Amino acid sequence: MKLLKRIEYNAPVTLTFSLICFVVLIFYNIFGERFLYAFAMTYNDSLLSPMMYVRMVTHIFGHLGWDHFIGNMSFILLLGPMVEEKYGSEKLMVMILATGLIAGILNNVLFPSVALCGASGIVFMLIVLSSVTSVQSGKLPLTLVLVMIIYLGAEIYNAIMVTDSISQFTHIVGGICGSIFGLFSDKNKK
Q1: Of 61, 94, 87, 80, which is closest to residue 177 (Cα–Cα)?
Q2: Which listed residue, of 30, 97, 168, 176, carries a Cα 20 to 30 Å from 151's Cα?
Q3: For the whole model, what pTM was predicted?
Q4: Which of 56, 180, 163, 162 is nearest to 109 (CA)?
Q5: How far apart (Å, rounded) are the C-alpha atoms in residues 85 and 126?
Q6: Backbone torsions φ then ψ of 22, nearest 5 degrees
């Protein structure tokens, strides 16, 4: 019992995001793809449907199985607390929602026949954000340059050369959002 008293909800946005993704995955396992299509997957729908606008953000909570979920949550739970401590919970929440919205809008406009769900864009945003550790005005950190080359370069290559069901575009959008947030955020104010 003493151990439970010592456990701290140390990264509320990261942990709550992960918990929501877990609950959505449970509902997906119970109700099937209809649940994801209704609440946690963005796709080209009628502009008159209010849910289309909601799903442009909520698609980040949906995952197409345990492997997809575990892969994303491993990175989110590893990197999220560090980024949340550095930037603050409110800023991280805004960054997550903005990245999801930007990816959702761009996916619907540029790839109208592709449905999108998952937190991969958020993962790439966190990877890039975590690489920006000591940005000083007028300087570009080498760690950020290397992360951009390795992760985003691989995604650009995969988008061009590999045909699969993974949205490399979302990864690229997440990485770009992470670099913009990291380079232009005032990290000292939470």
Answers
A1: 94
A2: 97
A3: 0.84
A4: 56
A5: 12
A6: -65, -45
